[in-house]
């Protein structure tokens, strides 16, 4: 007559340990998939914003819209409000629903404001701004020395309420600035003036020691990413 086998305490503990390990591995894999999905969605949103900026520029002498850095002085509204019709949305004040739909990265935990900032180099004026390369200006996208290497939009830190990146003030450590340089697995998403988007490390877009500066159009032509 066969005796029924009963698990010993040791066997039960081993089974529980194996289940715990498998659960931990599954949770980590699931978290990684979720983070990758958020990063991919963010990239898609940034490409859509870049397309809208280009559409807007096509109707405005090839010049992109301005951010709060200079929009008021030129009797414009901020770039987000300006491109809403190019996104297929009615022109209206930017509210939280619009921010959530168009201008907020799903990995960003902020509840107000935008996740994305316009590169302020497109707006600099040598009469009012101090920057390397002055008096050169880069108002027309088509005239950039290297549109494929010049950042158009970047991700902002959760704590930042700005709609633009003041990269002409950067020192050697961009992690101390307003840009969220490690939002996606120690990287961040950027969209370039030619419309392509990429997930990059901060040293891929700004590293003075290697001569990499994808913010300043005068220097971006030398970037080797």
The count of strands amounts to: 7
General shape: elongated
Distance between the termini: 74 Å
Largest sheet: 5 strands, mixed
- Helix percent reads 25-40%
Query: What structural category do the secondary elements indicate?
Result: alpha+beta
Order of helical and strand elements = HHHEEEEEHEEH
Q: Percent of residues in beta strands?
A: 5-15%
- The gyration radius over C-alpha positions equals 23 Å
Q: What integer is the average pLDDT?
A: 88
- Count of domain modules: 1
Strand order of the largest sheet: 3-1-2-4-5
**Tally of DSSP helical segments:** 5
* Low-confidence blocks of residues: none
Structural account:
The chain is α+β, with helices and mostly antiparallel strands and 225 residues long. The protein has helices spanning 9-58, 79-83, 96-103, 202-205, 217-220, and strands at residues 116-119, 151-155, 164-165, 188-192, 197-200, 206-207, 212-213. Strands 3-1-2-4-5 form a 5-stranded mixed β-sheet. It has a two-stranded antiparallel ribbon with strand order 6-7. The chain is elongated and about 85 Å long.
List the helices and strands and how they pair.
Elements lengths: L8 H50 L20 H5 L12 H8 L12 E4 L31 E5 L8 E2 L22 E5 L4 E4 L1 H4 E2 L4 E2 L3 H4 L5
């Amino acid at each position: 007559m066969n005796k029924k086998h009963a698990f010993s305490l040791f066997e039960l503990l081993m089974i529980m340990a194996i289940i715990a390990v498998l659960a931990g591995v599954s949770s980590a894999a699931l978290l990684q998939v979720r983070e990758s999905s958020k990063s991919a969605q963010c990239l898609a949103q940034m490409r859509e914003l870049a397309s809208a900026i280009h559409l807007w520029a096509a109707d405005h002498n090839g010049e992109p819209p301005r951010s709060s850095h200079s929009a008021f002085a030129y009797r414009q509204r901020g770039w987000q409000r300006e491109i809403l019709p190019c996104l297929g949305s009615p022109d209206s004040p930017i509210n939280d629903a619009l921010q959530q739909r168009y201008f907020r990265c799903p990995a960003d935990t902020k509840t107000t404001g935008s996740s994305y900032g316009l590169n302020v180099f497109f707006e600099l004026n040598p009469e009012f701004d101090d920057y390397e390369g002055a008096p050169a200006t880069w108002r027309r996208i088509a005239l950039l020395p290297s549109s494929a290497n010049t950042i158009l939009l970047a991700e902002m830190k959760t704590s930042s309420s700005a709609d633009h990146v003041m990269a002409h003030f950067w020192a050697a450590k961009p992690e101390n600035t307003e840009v969220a340089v490690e939002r996606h697995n120690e990287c961040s998403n950027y969209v370039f003036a030619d419309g392509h988007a990429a997930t990059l490390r901060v040293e891929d877009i700004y590293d003075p020691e290697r001569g990499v500066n994808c913010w300043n159009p005068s220097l971006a032509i030398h970037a080797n990413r």
